[in-house]
Amino acid sequence: MSGCGPELYLAITRDNSPTSNFLRGMVRVFINSCPYKLVTHFYGMVTIADAFAGATRVHVVDYGIAYGAQWPAFIQHLSQRPGGPPHLRITGVCSEVVLYVDLLE
Fold first, then answer.
1. I want to staple 87 with a disulfide (CB 3.0 to 4.6 A). Which of 57, 77, 78, 83 is the partner?
2. Is residue 72 part of a domain?
3. Ramachandran quadrant class, 92 (left: phi over 0; alpha: psi -120 to 50; beta: rest)
4. Assigned domain for 17 exists
5. Residue 58: which of 82, 91, 92, 83 has the closest Cα?
6. Torsions phi, psi for 62 (to 5 deg)
7. Helix, strand, or coil (residue 61)
């Protein structure tokens, strides 16, 4: 039973690596094990981008956002849009927590 209980908890909580490393690793493992998710994210983002083509303000509500790993590529796509990026607000709803990300032009 060595390494269980308090020893394991202390080893995990002493890890001071940035959250971005954790998220990057989780996304990589997830996409490698379930590539269909990558395709659904891509087509979902293309559909959202087409729905508000030319809009100057966009508010997206993502129910079940989890880590929000699908949004960085979408934000990069918007930043390269002809005519400049729109004002973007992403509201992520995950359980009882509501996250607001407001990106100004």
1. 57
2. yes
3. beta
4. yes
5. 91
6. -110, 105
7. strand
- Give pLDDT tens digits along the chain (105 positions): 555 666 666 666 676 667 777 777 777 777 777 777 677 778 888 888 888 888 889 898 888 777 777 788 888 888 888 888 889 998 888 765 555 555 554
Q: Which residues pair with 62 in a beta bridge?
A: 92
- Copy the structure tokens of residue 89: 């607000």
Which residue segment(s) compose the domain that 89 sits in? 6-103
59 within some domain? yes
Q: Nearest-CA neighbor of 70 among 17, 18, 26, 105?
A: 26
* 90, part of any domain: yes
CB within 8 A of 58, min separation 6: which ones?
A: 52, 78, 86, 87, 88, 89
Tell me the CA distances in angstroms from 7 to 4, 17, 22, 37, one per residue in order.
Answer: 6, 19, 21, 36
Domain count, the chain: 1
- Among 67, 77, 23, which residue's Cα sits nearest to residue 45? 77
Identity at 92, one-letter amino acid code: G
CB 58 within 8 A of CB 89: yes
